[in-house]
Amino acid sequence: MTDTLPTFPQSPSPVIIDGVVAAARVKAEVAAGICDLTARGSVAPGLAVVLVGDDPASIAYVRMKERDCAEVGIRATDYRLPADIPQKELNALIEELNRSERVHGVLVQLPLPAPLDEAQVIERIAPAKDVDGFGADSLGRLVRGERALRACTPAGVMRLLDDYGIDPDGKRAVVVGRSVIVGKPMALLLLERNATVTVCHSRTADLAALCREADLLVAAVGRPGMIDRSYVKPGAVVIDVGINRTDKGLVGDVDFADVAPITAAITPVPGGVGPMTRALLMANTLAAAQAQL
Ligand code: GUN
User: Fold this and answer.
1) Contact 62, 52 (CB under 8 A)
2) What is the pTM of this model?
3) CA distance 40 to 221
4) Which of 22, 94, 101, 257 is 20 to 30 A removed from 120 (C-alpha atoms)?
5) Calpha distance 134→107 (Å, rounded)
């Protein structure tokens, strides 16, 4: 299939969008904001990090988030809970964190082990402390175009686009994936910036043809290397949100080696969207603290 498609030899080298550098910039801004806050006598922002069970990937993510907190000056408080914690106890902890004046953001690492009900937990987090932006209040405000804490991964993608001078205005954007965490808020953020957005998913007919219409293609499906160049219009910008653990290490949803040569710009995995997700969590925690203090 690859051989029948244009290889875009006239294109200059694609821009490799560097999420590590962009995240460092966001974190430096957050650190400066925290210095301002504490110089005026406020406490440093506090983030409660709740991890239930011992899923190795979740443990690794939480560790990286806590390292970022230490770097920017956010006080992270760790809540490590057993996988068999009763729902009632977990709910009660969230309510306690909602009441705590020292906690400005509450992050519950997902997925929760079965049979815990994620929706009950997410809905309990006070909207002012919903630094993941997954609650109905945060998402509803996003739909309405109102100020709120916005989901970190899609907000991180928007910041990457801005940093690289990629303006979604008037562009055809295709988002592959319709999750509450990425796909749906991603589509809304792109729409807010005047892109014409199509959201595709596992039941979309002729997915590759639809994706080939995209000036801006965002892949958030969770299937390693699924997007090859048969899905990509030459000269498109490709954003890979996938983080898949495979025998070959971390790989994205995009077959980078196949796709990169025909793009105008593309994010790598690792080192693309992932670091920005964590940086935006720091930015959301600062924003939550500023609003509460
Ligand atoms: N699990 C996978 N991504 C995320 C995220 O962005 N936030 C939380 N809390 N859990 C996740």
Assistant:
1) no
2) 0.94
3) 44
4) 101
5) 10
Q: How many CB atoms lie within 10 A of CB 262?
A: 21
Extents of the domains making up the chain: 42-125, 164-274
pLDDT (tens digit per residue) in 18-65: 999 999 999 999 999 999 999 999 999 999 999 999 999 999 999 999
Cβ proximity of 171 and 195 under 8 Å: yes
CATH 1.10.3210.10 fits 164-274, yes or no: no
The answer to whether 176 and 220 are in contact (CB under 8 A) is yes
Q: Which residues contact 146 (CB under 8 A, 6 or more apart)?
A: none
Shortest-distance atom of ligand 1 to CA 152: 6
Expressed in angstroms, the distance from the first to the final Cα of the chain is: 57
Q: Is the CB of 285 under 6 A from ligand 1?
A: no
Q: Is 200 in the pocket of ligand 1 (CB under 6 A)?
A: no
The pair of three-digit structure tokens given for residue 69, joined into one six-digit string = 């907190």
Query: Could you give the residue numbers annotated as active site?
Result: 65, 109, 132
Q: How far apart are CA 111 and CA 109, in angstroms?
A: 6
- Nearest Cα residue to atom 4 of ligand 1: 110
The CATH topology of domain 42-125 is Rossmann fold (3.40.50)
